[in-house]
Write a structure and sequence with these properties.
seven-stranded mixed β-sheet, 19% strand
């Protein structure tokens, strides 16, 4: 692997985004000859866009601002803008051990898609918030029974894949929020790509989150719509 496009979906992440970008660049710029970070600010009402624009002078960073609020909207836009052979995304708050993330990515030599999982070896050493854990476990159960996806953790914010995956799957996504991950995995599974779920524990307690219980009905509605399509 010589080149990587890293997408960061951002909604009001002003408190954490500068530190995360610095750490992402520190790790991945050393590992890849060609590296770019694409931050997609979706529906931001804080000053994270201004923070990111200033950071373009220091890092190989591109900033995209969209009015739609939703992780799915942000990732689709970011992947469509990506230049390099290997693509993926990490959360704006950098919750994972990045050395473990890179170890996960090395498996792209044998697999088409690699996804982080916090639960493959039991409970994570550092716990998520109750709501994040509920969505993660609920997403796994929902995806197993409705989409026949046998993954323990569909919602972990670290997924990487080869460009051919993005070029071949249907990119007209129904799921525009945190449910995007399940639709992406469903489409890659249906297209017969090889997917590896890799144990990647959290490195810290997640203090920053834009997840709210009010998003759950919309997520369920979109996933049912996807299932019936």
């Amino acid at each position: 692997m010589e080149c990587l496009s890293l997408i960061i979906p951002n909604h009001n992440g002003a408190k954490v985004i500068e530190n995360s970008i610095e750490k992402y660049n520190r790790i991945f710029a050393k590992k890849f000859k060609k590296f770019e970070i694409i931050v997609v600010c979706n529906g931001c009402t804080d000053n994270s866009v201004q923070i990111c624009n200033k950071l373009t002078k220091k890092f190989p960073l591109k900033v995209i601002e969209i009015s739609q609020r939703g992780k799915g909207y942000a990732l689709v836009r970011g992947f469509n803008e990506a230049k390099f052979e290997y693509m993926g995304f990490l959360d704006v708050d950098n919750p994972f051990d990045l050395k473990r993330v890179f170890q996960m990515m090395e498996n792209l030599e044998q697999y088409d898609v690699v996804i982080a999982s916090k639960y493959l070896k039991g409970h994570a050493k550092v716990q998520e918030s109750f709501l994040r854990r509920l969505i993660s476990l609920g997403g796994g159960v929902f995806s197993k029974f409705f989409f026949r996806l046998n993954f323990r953790d569909t919602q972990a914010g670290a997924k990487f894949f080869k460009r051919k995956v993005w070029e071949k799957i249907n990119r007209n996504f129904i799921c525009s929020g945190f449910d995007f991950d399940i639709e992406f995995l469903y489409k890659t599974y249906k297209t017969k790509f090889k997917i590896l779920e890799y144990y990647t524990p959290l490195s810290k307690y997640e203090k920053f989150s834009t997840v709210s219980i009010k998003y759950l009905p919309g997520m369920v509605f979109r996933l049912l719509k996807l299932r019936l399509k």
